[in-house]
Design goal:
2 copies of one chain form a homodimer.
Chain A: H1 17-31, H2 38-45, H3 49-56, H4 59-79, H5 86-103, H6 107-117, H7 122-136, H8 145-162, H9 175-192, H10 199-204, H11 213-228
Chain A binds a DNA duplex through helix 2 and helix 3.
DNA sequence: CCGGAAATGGAACGTTGTACCAACTTGGAT
DNA sequence: ATCCAAGTTGGTACAACGTTCCATTTCCGG
């Protein structure tokens, strides 16, 4: 009767799959995709490679699982919010993905890679379902649902991925200082382009300093939503 | 006077940088990003690793250069075509990128990676300039040029990347047989989803068989172009 | 308390990107 | 024609990686 607390197959798992995934996400956030090595994992978790491969099977599978975990978590936080209109709900989902990639830049390539390799996977299907439902409430005729949802998802994931920032340390005092500097450097680079060959870049070079990625993203969504009304 | 053909620094270069890039693209097309190894290159070019590193410096730089070469070539072929309207020109450029990724699936992740890491690079600037010029002829007020071009580029590159197909051999007799099979499998997978949790995917599952990626892409572009008229 | 199953840590293997080098080739100066 | 510094090459060597394998330890139902 000493083991009364022990039930059926309860086991005190010292190293769980979730711990490995968590450590993997931390490594990825710190140093990007290259920082996720099995050896770095064993050191951080104070274990051997055998233990990791027992739970996870593969580096690629670990990357997929980490991606799925982060994206699912990002989408889950939006589930609670009650959006007034379908348009608002789409914006909420889109911004959740935007912020997720801002926190985890390695998602930019991994997300598209995963959608390409496994279009039936839970990520693709989850995002598509979430967006698609709103499309159907947007007055788009059912024959066009697929096209409309596809357009929205393509735009959202494209914009979100291309807005990811890779660079290293934002651990400094002012995280916006790098941003200012980056925008300034970009503006200068565009200015330096030959106006003969690049008249457009030259024309908008001044505009980039007074611009906000997030707002521009929302503008893009508004454009696509406006365009969708034409499908009716 | 025996060397009359020899000018200043003309040199009979046995191994040129262009040859290396060409071989790299072939390897990438054949077996994806994992197939591009320095050793595979040395074998194909019948040389040593020293020669390759003398011309190219880096595996990552080689991947960047290969990407740039392929994309630039794809865009160059469209320069000859005379498009009637700005909308047509945008479609021409977009389809060129669509086809380029169809031929070189490894571009899907590499293209976004390159845009993220070097937004001032020739690829980003080249595409942006090409699209932007049409935007300015579309009646969009100059204050909105940046937003409009950004939306278009984000959508085009997003859709194009997410439409890439990874799978192996299309060397069979019927390249569309795999495609049919893939669409069927996807439709079935969507059908098998729980209709309670995934009503939308269930609703459009039948629609996927009668769908064409290219047409859907053009529909998406039309949607975005329609939306842009609202910026006026 | 005992035995099979679950889980672990570490050694070992093959492959990778890359640095380095000794040799060969080239082409302008003498 | 000869020579030499710069350019170019093939190959070796090394550290780091993903992964396999296995002896050992820990677990838990009977």
């Amino acid at each position: 009767m000493a083991t009364r607390a022990r039930r059926t197959q309860r086991r005190n798992q010292v190293l769980s799959r979730e711990q490995i995934i968590g450590a993997a996400v931390e490594l990825l956030d710190t140093g990007g995709e290259g920082a996720l090595t099995v050896r770095a994992l064993t050191e951080r978790l104070a274990t051997g490679s055998g233990a990791i491969y027992y739970h996870v099977g593969n580096r690629d599978e670990l990357l997929d699982t980490a991606t799925e975990t982060v994206v699912t978590a990002a989408l889950a936080t939006t589930a609670a919010q009650a959006a007034a209109t379908p348009e608002d709900e789409i914006r909420v989902v889109a911004l959740a993905l935007f912020d997720a990639i801002a926190e985890h830049p390695w998602l930019a390539t991994r997300l598209t890679l995963q959608i390409i390799r496994n279009p039936v996977g839970s990520i693709s299907v989850g995002i598509f379902e979430r967006i698609g439902r709103q499309v159907s409430e947007l007055g788009v005729p059912q024959a066009r649902w697929f096209d409309a949802a596809s357009t929205l998802v393509h735009y959202i994931l494209g914009a979100v991925s291309q807005n990811a920032r890779i660079e290293g340390d934002t651990s400094g005092v002012e995280p916006d200082a790098d941003r200012e500097e980056f925008l300034g450097a970009t503006a200068e680079a565009w200015q330096d382009l030959d106006p003969e060959d690049y008249p457009f870049m030259h024309a908008i070079a001044g505009r980039i300093s007074e611009h906000d990625d997030r707002e521009q993203f929302l503008t893009g969504i508004a454009v696509v939503l406006d365009g969708l009304t034409r499908l009716r």
